[in-house]
Amino acid sequence: MSTNSSRVASIAVGAVLVAAVAGTAGYWVGHTPPPSAVAERKVLYWYDPMSPEQKFTKPGKSPFMDMPLVPRYADTGAEGVKPGVQLDPVARQNLGVRLARVERTPVADQQSVTGTIGYNQRDVAVIQARAAGFVERGYGRAPGDVLAAGAPLADLLLPAWDGALAEYLGVRRLGDAALTAAARQRLRLLGLSDAAIARADANGSARATTTITTPIGGALQTLDVRPGMAVAAGQTLAQVNGLGRVWLDAAVPEAMVSRIAVGQHARAELTAYPGVPVTGRIAAILPAAQPDSRTLTVRIDLPNPGGRLRPGMFARVMLGGSEQSALTVPSEAVIRTGTRTLVIVAGEHGSYRPAEVRVGREAGGRTVIEAGLAEGEQVVASGQFLLDSEASLRGLDVRQIAAKPPAAAALPLTHARIEAVDATSVTLSHDAIPALAWPAMTMAFKLASPDQGKGLHPGDEVMFSFDQKPDGPVIYAITPMGAAK
Known about the structure:
Blueprint: H1 3-25, H2 35-40, E1 43-48, E2 51-56, E3 70-73, E4 85-86, H3 89-95, E5 98-101, E6 103-119, E7 124-128, E8 133-138, E9 146-147, E10 152-157, H4 159-174, H5 177-190, H6 194-203, E11 209-213, E12 218-223, E13 230-231, E14 236-241, E15 245-253, H7 254-257, E16 265-270, E17 278-290, E18 295-303, E19 314-330, E20 335-336, E21 341-346, E22 351-363, E23 366-371, E24 378-382, H8 384-393, E25 414-421, E26 425-430, E27 441-447, E28 461-469, E29 472-480, H9 481-484
Parallel strand pairs: 27-29
Antiparallel strand pairs: 1-2, 1-3, 4-22, 5-24, 6-15, 6-19, 7-14, 8-10, 8-13, 9-12, 10-11, 12-14, 15-18, 16-17, 16-19, 17-18, 19-23, 20-21, 21-22, 21-24, 22-23, 25-26, 25-28, 26-27, 28-29
Helix pairs in contact: 1-3, 1-8, 4-5
């Protein structure tokens, strides 16, 4: 849309407001009052209603249109301050203007995302051949089987072990204890177990047939042995994934990642088991973002009693969960222009003025205000677009965000035990915090700087204080108990 078209559209919207106000309250924007009224009112400047951003110091004809300039009066505010848009109660009611108060309300720091169950790649056993040989017997296993620890996979005949066992038995018959011990140690270095050596001692046989078993219980991922085949030393025969714990990889939008930390609790509910939530902890936030969906993968470690959670299952994940207190307004009161975010603030005597704000997350139909408003102010929650258009037509300045917002008050020192710590956050099991009506619990806190985490280790007893920021608690000070004393 061209600039002229935009201006015409803005003027048309403003005209709707002017006509509505004029029909209900007798108020006209740009209407020149009688001479007696002009004498009693201070003129700030003159302007052309078709180009309100241009100001003139004296009356006359507009250089843009064949029409007289219109005075702007100092009806409200101090000298030099542009008045806001004025509405009396009747006009406000007819325009449907509804006000809402800026309040400090609890905001649940909870995010719902989706994820998929996968194998725990830290619980993997790779089974290899200790020496070259042949597969004498298989046990009918196949990939996908769930096996207990110690389950047999195949019997291997290893000729290299035959020769070493024969030498060992010959040395043992000589009765030289030192030579026997050296031969036994050689068998161990070749990979024979003490049980296999004991069987050779008992049987007096040098035939080295060994049974390959699974060192852990879990799902058999690969099996590369079949009866009659030859195997080489170091060849991978099988791979087993444990199922005692599984990973849940959740796709989290980039905008939410700043509110997530390793060690935080997470709750998952699977489609296969509705109404039966599973709780775990965030084990890692993977470093790479997905370019197609602009999400990061958050890995959650979940217990898997009975093996109910199977890789590939779909789950809905709730991250966070604690409630934070923050300044909020109804989300419908926020005007997003693309370059900045505004609200219409209600002043005294029916005046309204746009104000720039910095917003945070949305929850429950309310938006967190990080800067630009104070608790107790009133904003327009309905009809704000008409007022914003009228303010633009009148060339009103937007109230800017304060350059330096007031610092949040640090809460009193609290005792806690460190559960986990990294460069950006620390997970604490803290005592009750009466100032916030928080019970004793375990949760993650952001660190104001990476230096705060230096020298801290899981298990340390600390005293800490934090600021309650709109995007979550931030550690203000943290000191080990010994140093605090």
